[in-house]
Write a structure and sequence with these properties.
heterodimer, A: alpha/beta, Pectate Lyase C-like, about 25% strand, B: alpha/beta, TIM Barrel, 15 helices
Chain lengths: ~230, ~450
């Protein structure tokens, strides 16, 4: 059983209010959102273990600040999907625009297609798995969490990165400031295997390379000022 | 050498002053720019350059102490279901836990609550202490998103999207490793002890069209319950205010270059942005041109020190003001009683600005438990309440003298300027004239 919500007919505020009203409960019914027609801020601020499927493509910030919910977009998403997600899962069947998973603190974001620039920017603990490729400046200032890219990464990957871990199977056009390739140890292969399985991805952990912080920008000194 | 010949006295260069030369020597020795806290220290046109005209034959004053002079203000009347009702039009500006100690944040909350006004979080998120002691708490939504979470967002009485601040418009923040203790590191998801950088731009929006969508998202998450402020550093006030309003702001906060920061480059503080006095009239004009002056409230900050400053800002069109540095001074920052300790740090009371180093003798800008314990949050709150009360009484005194029964009735016609610069910026007549530079219809 699923509750169907016609976004075009019944409006955005009604949808989000209804989903917010589930906070503190364990919903038995899934929700299906139809006619999203690129609307912004669909299913934002949820705080319940509810399954929500959006039938179509969305605009900005779908699944923003999600907690607990599993949100699936049967389409592509605009900028900032799952921004600042705390927990739960967001799955995008299509492609994602800029800032996917920006500043996310937790949870899992899966993008079955490609993600544009700044994927995982300022990530703070979120796990992101992209089946395709990602654009430039991804994981910029990434603080924590894991970004897994099954395709290629664009320019300046991991610029000014803190402690986020980056795994890329394909090519990396260039690494950003203070981002270096790092040894892939057994614990990383285990971590990667688990993330790939959760993301329904059949890539092999051994095919990836790991990148992270050289930690040379961690202290403010003249050598870092240019 | 003939001692009978008169000699010129040594003359210090105005261009290469002792302070300038000292900075050149410091730069030559270290190879890195100076970082400090606070706002612009240079002399700029300010509220001191304005005077109230007071009532006379043509104006009818109100009796001091007795006749009513209202001070309340409501912020967020445009769209929010629950606008913020304040007893006084003086709010406490955003200052982070991390930059400030826990007791200092608690004291700000206590003082603001006693005085009937709001306080504001800062970079690094909301602490239970400040939420618990602040009846009205504004939650800052910053580029770094440190500590940002939807639960705190919903616990807030208003949300302030920080685009910039007066001390460093276009720049990010710094919190050096000395102040990143276990708790601060955990709140910001960063390794302990590193020199932390706060981003200068938001990670998931760019430009006014995106900002409109970001505001939509925040309204959706909070069901439109609370006001959404947009805070900007004063640079191009007319256009920035207009764009913030277009994006859907309920309240615009504009912060002049005298507004403080916890830490950034001195060159940034002193050379980027415009004075508070210069930004109010263009901001008000933007609101007036959009037909939204008073419907979108304007909060002005940066160098507000007393009731006269409050009254002058409001006469120029602000709905409220916000204080940061002055509130810290009220708590005890730069107090001469710590002079010996300031001297030991190579400075003196009143000039101490190395807030980023975490060695504040007053226990305010520190995470050192021993230093932080010097500030009693209850006593600090009482001092802040007193100070806010005095500012309010002073502003009322001036308003009554100008014949107004509410601070919001103060108007530019109540003011004149002492200098050409102030007259031009405030667009009020030079004292004793009916003219200011740029006055429409005067040709120049």
């Amino acid at each position: 059983m699923a509750t169907t919500y016609d976004l075009e007919r019944d409006g955005l505020r009604g949808l989000n209010r209804a989903l917010h009203a589930l906070a503190g409960s364990t919903p038995n019914e899934a929700w299906e959102v139809v006619n999203p027609r690129g609307s912004h801020a669909i299913a934002v601020g949820l705080d319940a273990p509810v399954d929500v499927t959006v039938r179509g493509s969305t605009g900005y910030y779908c699944g923003g600040m999600n907690k607990q919910a599993t949100i699936r977009v049967a389409g592509s998403v605009g900028p900032g999907v799952a921004e600042n997600m705390m927990s739960g899962t967001v799955i995008v069947d299509g492609d994602a625009s800029q800032y996917a998973g920006a500043s996310g603190h937790g949870g899992l974001l899966v993008i079955k297609g490609n993600a544009s620039s700044r994927c995982g920017i300022s990530m703070k603990g979120i796990d992101i798995v992209v089946h395709g490729s990602i654009g430039h400046m991804s994981a910029f200032m990434g603080q924590a969490g894991n970004l897994v890219v099954c395709g290629d990464a664009g320019e300046a990957l991991g610029d000014s990165i803190y402690e986020a871990r980056l795994f890329v199977r394909g090519s990396v056009k260039s690494l950003g400031a203070d981002c270096i390739e790092k040894e892939m140890r057994p614990e990383h292969l285990d971590l990667l295997a688990g993330l790939l399985e959760r993301a329904e991805c059949d890539a092999k952990p051994e095919e990836f390379r790991r990148y992270g912080s050289a930690r040379k920008l961690y202290n403010f000194k003249i050598d870092n000022a240019y | 050498m003939n001692n009978d010949i008169p000699r010129t006295v040594p003359i210090q260069s105005a261009t290469f002053s002792n302070a300038v030369n000292a900075e050149i020597r410091r730069a030559a020795a270290t190879g890195i720019y100076d970082i400090r806290g606070g706002g612009a220290k240079r002399r700029v046109p300010h509220f001191d350059d304005l005077l109230f005209l007071g009532a006379s034959v043509s104006r009818y004053p109100l009796e001091g102490y007795r006749e009513t002079c209202g001070t309340n203000v409501t912020l967020g009347t445009r769209f929010a279901e629950n606008p913020i009702e304040l007893d006084i039009p003086i709010t406490i500006a955003g200052m982070s836990f991390g930059a400030l100690s826990g007791p200092a944040k608690e004291a700000l909350g206590r003082g603001a609550t006693l005085a009937g006004t709001s306080t504001t979080t800062g970079d690094g998120g909301m602490t239970p202490e400040e939420r618990g002691h602040s009846a009205k708490l504004v939650y800052q939504y910053l580029p770094s998103r440190y500590g940002m979470n939807p639960d705190d967002l919903r616990r807030a009485d208003a949300i302030e999207i920080v685009v910039g601040q007066g001390a460093k418009p276009g720049g990010g923040g710094m919190l050096l490793g000395q102040k990143i203790d276990d708790r601060v590191a955990e709140m910001r998801t960063l390794p302990k002890g590193i020199d932390q950088r706060s981003a200068c731009r938001h990670p998931d929006w760019t430009g006014p069209d995106d900002l409109e969508i970001k505001i939509l998202e925040l309204r959706e998450i909070t069901s439109g319950r609370v006001p959404i402020y947009v805070k900007i550093g004063a640079t191009r006030p007319y256009f920035d205010v207009a764009l913030a309003v277009k994006a859907g702001a309920d309240v615009v906060v504009i912060d002049g270059m005298q507004g403080g920061t916890a830490a950034t480059q001195d060159v940034f503080i002193e050379h980027v942005g415009i004075p508070t006095l210069a930004c109010i009239r263009p901001a008000v004009k933007a609101l007036q041109d959009l037909g939204l002056h008073r419907e979108v409230q304007l909060v002005v900050s940066g160098g507000i020190r007393n009731g006269a400053d409050v009254a002058k800002a409001m006469a120029l069109g602000a709905d409220a003001v916000s204080i940061g540095t002055a509130a810290m001074v009220a708590l005890g920052d730069n107090d001469p009683r710590y002079e010996a300790e300031y001297n030991a740090l190579g400075t003196t009371a009143g000039a101490y600005d190395d807030w980023h180093e975490g060695r504040d003798p007053a226990g305010i800008t520190t995470q050192d438990p021993k230093l932080a314990a010097r500030l009693d949050p209850v006593e600090g709150g009482r001092r802040l309440r007193n100070y806010l009360n005095v500012m309010t009484l002073e502003a009322q005194t001036i308003a009554r003298a100008c014949g107004h029964n509410h601070l919001h009735n103060l108007e530019p016609e109540d003011l004149c300027a002492l200098t050409m610069e102030a007259a031009a910026m405030a667009q009020v007549p030079l004292a004793g004239t009916d003219w200011w530079p740029g006055k429409p219809g005067t040709g120049y």
